[in-house]
Amino acid sequence: MQITVNGTATEVQAQTLADALDELGYRDAKVATAVNESFVPATARDAPLSPGDRIEIVAPRQGG
């Protein structure tokens, strides 16, 4: 299915946000996620995705 990940059109086989994170290499990463500009907590990532969904994935950074 065609989705947008952090502004880039991406083709995935995943049907849920959790599966998409795995497919995109974020399996064990601690990240914040949003679908269509709505925050999705880690406990709700099994909800189905739809073609055209816009996903944002943000990883924490260290620094000062």
From TrEMBL:
Pfam families: ThiS (PF02597)
Coiled-coil regions, chain positions: none
Superkingdom per UniProt: Bacteria
CDD domains, A to Z: Ubl_ThiS
Gene3D superfamilies, sorted: 3.10.20.30
Xref: NCBIfam families: thiS (TIGR01683)
Record protein name field: Sulfur carrier protein
Organism: Primorskyibacter flagellatus
